[in-house]
């Protein structure tokens, strides 16, 4: 197995502690071991991809990190906080935001409103201020609007702030999902198959966008991604799962040439196909 735990991704401070550590995670569904004793870290300011053939356990592992599934054993540390098996909104409040494989937006709300809904948990005003519309509430609303507009500009859809989410193109809906996740001010952003349904031009733009996220928002990004060209261009580090086990970990060049990875994707006799 290629190991890269000592590598420092581009832009990361050499001595910065990892943003996330998953230690010996196992998930069983009845007799099926979907994730088997998998450990990994997400370094500071890095882009890490989780790849593997269908059924490898990627989504299950992701769902454990974000609290949607309970680990049978093992633990997850977000910074220095133990988040193992906390409920998803607690984990989100501690700095982990995610998008979903199937876009989950409020279609009949505008793009700006979708982002403001996500910011709701950050606002200080309680129900009294909301009903009576105190100066504090009006100030918070103004600030929320400004922040939402900034985030929409950052993801490149500022001009659609007043459009209904459902009227945006597929690629722009994905951007809106990311703006909404950023409204939580996360330290880690998890993206589940973000380029699914994108055309090659949109995927190419997406690669530089994720690097901007890492560099300008001071974030680490973890993705599940099937498009190998995107994975290879995007990732500081790649972790490969196969049948629930971690079979390789390293930079794109290590993974591209790793025998176990080639075999997992192509089978022993399938080297002529591209991963
Ligand atoms: N809720 C569940 N209940 C029972 N089995 C499950 C559940 N979720 C996943 N599995 C099983 O766990 C294994 C890993 O599935 P998982 O969805 O994590 O793989 P994946 O790598 O994300 O696959 P894909 O690339 O196809 O999305 C599979 O055998 C799957 O059938």
UniProtKB/TrEMBL annotation:
Keywords: ATP-binding, Nucleotide-binding, Transport. Residues 20-268 form the ABC transporter domain. GO terms for molecular function: ATP binding. InterPro entries: AAA+_ATPase (IPR003593), ABC_AA/LPS_Transport (IPR051120), ABC_transporter-like_ATP-bd (IPR003439), ABC_transporter-like_CS (IPR017871), BCA_ABC_TP_C (IPR032823), P-loop_NTPase (IPR027417). Pfam families: ABC_tran (PF00005), BCA_ABC_TP_C (PF12399). This is ABC transporter ATP-binding protein.
């Amino acid at each position: 197995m290629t190991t890269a735990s000592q590598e420092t991704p581009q832009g990361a401070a050499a001595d910065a502690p990892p943003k996330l550590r998953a230690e010996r995670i196992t998930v069983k569904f009845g007799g099926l071991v979907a994730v088997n004793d998998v450990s990994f870290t997400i370094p500071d300011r890095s882009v890490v991809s989780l790849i593997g053939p269908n059924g490898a356990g990627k989504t299950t592992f992701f769902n454990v990190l974000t609290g949607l599934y309970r680990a049978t054993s093992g633990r997850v540390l977000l910074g220095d906080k133990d988040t193992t098996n906390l409920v998803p909104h607690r984990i989100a409040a501690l700095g982990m935001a995610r998008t979903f494989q199937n876009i989950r937006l409020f279609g009949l709300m505008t793009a700006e409103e979708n982002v403001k809904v996500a910011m709701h948990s950050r606002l200080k005003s309680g129900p009294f201020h909301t009903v009576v519309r105190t100066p504090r509430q009006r100030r918070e609303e103004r600030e929320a609007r400004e922040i939402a507009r900034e985030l929409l500009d950052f993801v490149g859809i500022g001009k659609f702030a007043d459009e209904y989410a459902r009227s945006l193109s597929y690629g722009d809906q994905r951007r809106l999902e990311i703006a909404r996740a950023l409204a939580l001010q996360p330290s880690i952003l998890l993206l589940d198959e973000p380029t699914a349904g994108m055309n090659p031009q949109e995927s190419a733009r997406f690669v530089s966008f994720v690097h901007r996220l890492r560099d300008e928002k001071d974030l680490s990004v973890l993705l599940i991604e099937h498009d190998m060209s995107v994975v290879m261009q995007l990732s500081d580090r790649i972790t490969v799962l196969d049948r629930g086990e971690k079979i390789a970990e390293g930079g794109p060049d290590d993974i591209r040439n790793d025998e176990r990875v080639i075999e997992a994707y192509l089978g022993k006799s399938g080297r002529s196909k591209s991963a």
